[in-house]
Design brief:
single chain, alpha/beta, TIM Barrel, 2 domains, 9-stranded mixed sheet, 3-stranded antiparallel sheet, globular, disordered N terminus
Length: 356
């Protein structure tokens, strides 16, 4: 199947591309084979938005790009999971801000995304204007300013990089003026879903607020296009370290060779693999869930078969707000006071001394 829509070229203004987004199933191009009428019920609960650039990455119905952006009737027919599995609301002292860990907060500053991921852990909120407001941003900034223990602020949403440059600069400036805030991070999928937004002007603006770290979000090797490479290159050239948070998704990337290729390609565009996340048990996303053991198997294949730079942390964000924990394949077979019996990446057994 050919690309379902001819998307604007890489130099097209990002606002133009975004304004041409499809927000209703009936407006999908004919090449997308799906029951449009049935999907209207899905989008009545969970909004859709697919910009022409990302839609243009689809090669055939049901492929890994299709599954991430085209609504699925299972989003409303399967009631497994919960709306807020990470209990973000329970750890929210003010609207739009989650303070779970002692020294850092998650701060929502945008309700918009360039593409609505069908597996999103904030399906309950994303695409609704009530998610973030000028008032909630002011309250969040006030909370951070008054809590001196907060040294690390993660901006999220929605997508912070869909804010206009002036608003983004205003938020970053206020955070930088707080002496106790040492690090600012931005979580964004823009370099993947709307790379045209990463203009030289935006990269220069972000580079003014070092130390600033950006975690991008790529799930499949086909998302790493020349446009995405250019976007990440501009951010890296501005002196901003880039990491990638990938979600393990059934039918999208739950094969070791897919994850290995993705991690290797990320390094070629100067993005360090950071987390491989077990999908959260969000209501309406169960068709994406993988057994926990699948992630462990993938990590076993990565370890030793590719550069350590390519190996992310496999993480589970614990249900009900327990926070992130890292999981590793079991390499230790036996432990004695003086020796470890260990299985290596190739399955061979070795004894290793325990040094006092």
């Amino acid at each position: 199947m050919k690309s379902p829509m001819v998307h604007p070229g890489p130099e097209a203004p990002w606002r133009t591309i975004l304004s041409q987004s499809i927000t209703a199933p009936r407006n999908l191009p004919p090449s997308i084979k799906t029951d449009r009428k049935a999907l209207e019920a899905v989008t009545a609960r969970y909004p859709m938005q697919i910009n022409p650039y990302y839609l243009g990455l689809i090669q055939e119905t049901g492929d890994p790009i299709y599954k991430q952006c085209i609504p699925d009737i299972r989003e409303i027919s399967d009631e497994a999971g919960v709306e807020d599995p990470l209990n973000e609301e329970g750890d929210s002292p003010v609207p739009g801000l989650t303070h779970r860990y002692p020294d850092r907060v998650l701060f929502l500053v945008s309700s918009r995304c360039a593409m609505h991921c069908r597996f999103c852990n904030r399906k309950r909120k994303v695409g609704r204007e009530s998610m973030v407001s000028g008032g909630s941003i002011r309250e969040g900034l006030s909370y951070i300013k008054s809590h001196k223990e907060i040294r690390d602020v993660l901006l999220s949403g929605g997508d912070p990089l869909l804010l206009n440059n002036g608003k983004l600069a205003e938020i970053l400036t206020q955070l930088k003026e707080m002496p106790h805030v040492e690090i600012i991070r931005i979580g964004t999928r823009i370099p993947c879903t709307l790379p045209q937004r990463i203009t030289p002007r935006l990269a220069h603006l972000l580079g003014r607020f070092k130390p600033l770290y950006i975690n991008v979000h790529f799930n499949h090797p086909r998302e790493i296009t020349p446009a995405a490479s250019l976007a990440c290159g501009r951010l890296a050239d501005a002196g901003i370290p880039l990491g990638c948070q990938t979600v393990l998704l059934k039918g999208v990337n739950d094969q070791p060779e897919v994850i290995m290729t993705l991690m290797q390609k990320l390094l070629t565009i100067r993005v360090r693999p950071y987390y491989l996340f077990q999908a959260d048990p969000v209501r309406g996303t169960s068709h994406f869930w993988t057994p926990l053991q699948r992630g462990m198997e993938i990590m076993s294949v990565l370890q030793g078969h590719t550069s350590g730079l390519c190996v992310p942390h496999f993480a589970v964000d614990l249900f009900a707000g327990g926070g992130k924990v890292l999981l590793l394949p079991e390499y230790v077979v036996k432990r004695t006071p003086h020796w470890l019996t260990v299985k290596n990446y190739a399955g061979k057994i070795y004894r290793h001394p325990i040094l006092d």
